[in-house]
Amino acid sequence: MERISLHDERRLLEQEKIDLNEEKMSLDHQSKLYDDCERGLQNEKKVLQVRYEQLLSETNSLRQEIEKKNAEFQKITNQLLQSTEEMQLLRSQLLLYEEDFQHEKKLAEALLEEKNKLNTELLKQIEFNKQLQESGSSGKLKQTSQHQNEPSAICPKCEMAFQNLSDLMTHVDRCLDS
Question: Domain locations in the chain?
Answer without folding.
Answer: 2-140, 141-178
